Amino acid sequence: MLPKLESSKPKQSLIFEVLVALFITTLIISNILSVRIVKISFLTFDGGTILFPLAYIISDIITEIYGFKKMRQLIYIGISMLGVMAVCFYIAQYLPADTQNLVNEQAYLSVLGVAWRIVLASMTALFIGDFINSYVLAYLKIRTKGKAMWLRVVSSTALGSLIDTTLFTVIAFVGTLSGNELLKIIATVYFIKIATEVIISPVTIRIINYIKMRDHIDTYEKPHLKFYG
Q1: What string of DSSP letters covers 23-62?
Q2: In this structure, what DSSP letter does residue 11 have?
Q3: Three-class DSSP labels, 140-159
Q4: Any idea what the CATH number is for the domain that residue 57 is in?
Q5: Residue 9: what pLDDT?
Q6: How far apart are CA 68 and CA 213, in angstroms?
C-alpha cells in the first residue's frame, strides 16, 4: 500500500474563490435587474444599481490584496460569463414556444429578450470602468507605499464608477429614453455607487486587513496599461 502523499504547497484560502463567485454572481444578477428602470421620488435608476456597487467593492478587495493582474483576469472571466448568459438568453428566445403559455412567452421577451443590449453595455462598461478602477488603486498603492487606503479605495472607485456608469447608461438606454432621463440616471446611479462605497469603506478596509493578516498576503504590483501579460 502506497503511503499517503501530501503536497508541499501551502493550502490555498477559499476566500479568493468566494470573492470570485460573488463578483460573477453580482454581474449576472445586476444585468438582469438593469432591464427595469426604477423611480423613487426624484431619483431615477436602473434596477441593477441595488447590487452592482458590490462588484466595485470586491474589485477593490481583490486588487488591494491579490494585485492588479488577478483582478484583470477576473474582469475577463466576468465579461466571458456575461457573454455566455447573453447567448443562452438569445438561443432560448428562438426555441419553439408553448402556444398554451403565450403570456409567459411575452413576459420572457419583454425582460430577457432585450438582455443582449444590457449585456453589451455591461461588458463595455466593466471592461473599461473596472479596469481603470483597478489600475488607479494599484498605482496609488505603489505611490503611497500602501498608506491612505481609504483615500485610494474611494478615489479609484470615483473615477472608475463615473466611466462605468456613463458608458453603461448610454449604451443600454440611448434611443429608448430622453437625454434628460439619461442624465438623471447617470447622476443618480453614480451618486448611489459613491455613497455606497463611502458608507461601506470602513467594512471594506476591515475585510482587506483581515484577509492580509489571515493569509499573509499583500501584493504590491505596478500596473501597466496593457490588457495581457
Answers
A1: HHHHHHHHHHHTTSEEEETTEEEEGGGGTTHHHHHHHHHH
A2: P
A3: HHHHCCCCCHHHHHHHHHHH
A4: 1.10.1760
A5: 45
A6: 19
CB 39 within 8 A of CB 49: no
Let me know how long the chain is.
Answer: 229
Strand, coil or helix: 93: helix
Report the C-alpha gap between 66 and 128 in whole angstroms.
20
Q: What is the pLDDT of residues 178-226, one digit of tens each?
A: 888 899 999 999 999 999 999 999 999 999 999 999 999 999 988 876 6
Q: Which residue range forms the structural domain that includes residue 79?
A: 15-215
CB contact burial 113-144 (16+ within 10 A = b; e otherwise)? bebebbbbbbbbbbbbbbbbbbbbbbbbbeee
- Helices then strands, each counted (H, E), the chain: 8, 2
For residues 90-111, average pLDDT: 73
Q: Could you tell me what percent of the chain has a pLDDT over 70?
A: 88
Angstrom distance (rounded) from CA 123 to CA 117: 10
**Residue 205, amino acid:** I
State the chain's maximal CA–CA distance in angstroms.
Answer: 75
Residue 208 burial (CB count, 10 A): 19
Angle between helical axes of 53-66 and 15-33 (0-180°, round to 10):
150
Q: Is the pLDDT of residue 6 over 50?
A: no
Any domain includes 211: yes
Grid coordinates given for 204: 471594506
> Tens digit of pLDDT for each residue in 103-151?
677 777 766 766 677 788 888 998 999 999 999 999 999 999 999 999 9
89 within domain boundaries:
yes
**What is the domain count for the chain?**
1
In the block, residue with C-alpha cell 491612505: 148
